[in-house]
TrEMBL record:
Name by which UniProt lists this protein: Archaemetzincin-2
Family: Belongs to the peptidase M54 family.
Cofactor(s) this protein cannot do without: Zn(2+)
GO MF annotations, alphabetized: metal ion binding; metallopeptidase activity
Task of the protein: Probable zinc metalloprotease.
Length: 372
C-alpha cells in the first residue's frame, strides 16, 4: 500500500491558487469556511477531517489510468466546463427498468436518490422524469457470456436520453439496475457519459453484494436466449434487494458522475468522492463527500454556502429518524407503502458532517480559528 502524501504547500496551491485574482476570491470565504477547507492541508493527522489517498494495488485507478491532476485553477480556466445558469439549472434523473422487487420500491428508492442529489448539489433542483421500461428505450441488449446476466447497450441509452433532455436541463442522467455494455467487444461498463452533451447513464447492478457470487439470482433462474427486440426477458428480471449498502453505493456513483458534468475531473489530491475507481473495493474506499479542492470547484459553479449544503446532507441522513410518527402510523396500518430509509451505512459520514458543522458554526474552538 502506498500513501500519496502531498506537501501542505502543494495542497494550498491546488486549493487557493497562486493567481492573485483567484486567491483574492478565496479570501471571501468566511474565516470558519477557510478553517474547514484548510483542514485539507494536513491530511491524515490525528483528528483531521481529510485523509491522503492510498493506493492499494496496481489495479487501482491512479496506477491504471495516469491522468493530469486538476487543481482549482485549471478547473476554473477550463474553457469547456459547463456551469449551471438561470435557464439551465435542473438535474434530471431518468430511471430505466425497475429497482427493487416492486414498483413502489423503485419509486421510493429513486426519490431518496433525488433528495440526496439535491442536497449534494445544493442550490440546484433535481427532478425525476417518469420511469421508463427497457422496451421504451428501444435499446439493444445481450446476455453476457461470462456472467450470463442481461446487459443493455449504453450508446442506445444515451441517444434515448438525448432526445428526452428537457430545455432547462443542466444535465440528464439515466440510472438502471441492469448491467451495461458499451460495445460488443467489452465485457461490461459501470456507466458512460458525454460531458459535452451533459448526459450520462449508470448502472448499479454490480453494487449488489451478490452480483459476483454464484447464486446471483437471475443466472440460476434461467439461461436466457433472448431475441433482439423481444423485451419480455426484462419482465420481472432480477434486481438487487434494497439495502443500506446499495443506497450508499448508489449515492456515491450518482454524485461522482454528476460531478463530472461540472467539469470536475478525477481527484488526485486527497481521499475524495471524485477519485477514480476501477473496482468495487476501491469505490467503497472513497468517502461520501468532496475534499476541499473539489468542494471549491463545485461551490464556485453553484454558489451555495458550504454550511447550508452540509446541513441539507445531514438532514437527509437523519430525516427518517425524525419521522417516527409516520413510521408508527404505517406499522399500525400495516402499510406496505412505508419503506424506512436505510441509512445505517451512512453513519460515519453523518458524524463527519457534524464535525464539519462544528467548525463552520463555531461550536468548537478550532486551533486555526483561535490563532488568527
Ligand atoms: Zn469518474
Ligand atoms: Zn477531491
Amino acid at each position: 500500500m502506498k500513501v500519496i502524501q502531498h506537501s501542505a504547500q502543494t495542497l494550498q496551491t491546488a486549493l487557493v491558487s497562486d493567481h492573485q485574482g483567484l486567491a483574492k476570491v478565496y479570501r471571501e470565504y468566511t474565516k470558519e469556511e477557510r478553517c474547514l477547507l484548510e483542514e485539507g492541508f494536513h491530511p491524515g493527522e490525528p483528528g483531521s477531517l481529510f485523509q491522503p489517498i492510498t493506493v492499494h494495488s496496481d489495479s487501482d485507478w491512479i496506477p491504471a489510468h495516469p491522468e493530469e491532476p486538476q487543481d482549482f485553477e485549471s478547473f476554473y480556466r477550463d474553457p469547456y466546463r459547463k456551469t449551471p445558469n438561470a435557464s439551465h439549472n435542473t438535474i434530471y434523473i431518468q430511471t430505466i427498468g425497475s429497482f427493487g422487487e416492486a414498483g413502489v420500491q423503485t419509486d421510493q428508492y429513486v426519490e431518496w436518490l433525488r433528495q440526496y442529489s439535491q442536497a449534494f448539489f445544493y442550490g440546484l433542483s433535481v427532478k425525476l422524469l417518469p420511469a421508463v421500461t427497457v422496451a421504451e428505450t428501444g435499446c439493444s441488449f445481450r446476455v453476457n457470456s461470462n456472467t450470463h446476466n442481461l446487459q443493455i447497450l449504453t450508446g442506445d441509452l444515451l441517444r434515448f436520453l438525448g432526445n428526452k433532455k428537457p430545455k432547462d436541463a443542466f444535465c440528464i442522467v439515466g440510472i438502471t439496475m441492469i448491467d451495461l455494455y458499451p460495445k460488443d467487444s467489452w465485457n461490461f461498463v459501470f456507466g458512460q457519459a458525454s460531458l459535452s452533451m451533459g448526459m450520462g447513464v449508470f448502472s448499479f447492478a454490480r453494487y449488489d453484494d451478490s452480483f459476483y457470487s454464484r447464486d446471483y439470482a437471475e443466472r440460476l433462474r434461467k439461461r436466457l436466449q433472448p431475441k433482439q427486440g423481444d423485451y419480455s426477458v426484462f419482465d420481472g428480471y432480477y434486481t438487487p434487494p434494497i439495502s443500506s449498502t446499495l443506497l450508499l453505493r448508489s449515492c456515491k456513483t450518482m454524485t461522482h458522475e454528476i460531478g463530472h458534468m461540472f467539469g470536475i475531473r478525477h481527484c488526485q489530491w486527497l481521499n475524495c468522492i471524485m477519485q477514480g475507481s476501477n473496482h468495487l473495493e476501491e469505490s467503497d474506499r472513497r468517502p461520501l463527500d468532496f475534499c476541499p479542492i473539489c468542494l471549491r470547484k463545485l461551490q464556485v459553479s453553484v454558489g451555495f454556502k458550504i454550511g447550508e449544503r452540509y446541513k441539507a446532507l445531514l438532514h437527509w441522513m437523519e430525516e427518517d429518524q425524525r419521522q417516527t410518527p409516520r413510521a408508527e402510523e404505517a406499522v399500525a396500518h400495516q402499510s406496505a407503502l412505508y419503506l424506512p430509509k436505510p441509512t445505517g451505512a451512512f453513519h460515519a459520514s453523518k458524524l463527519w458532517l457534524c464535525r464539519c458543522l462544528d467548525i463552520l458554526e463555531k461550536r468548537v474552538a478550532h486551533p486555526c480559528c483561535t490563532h488568527h
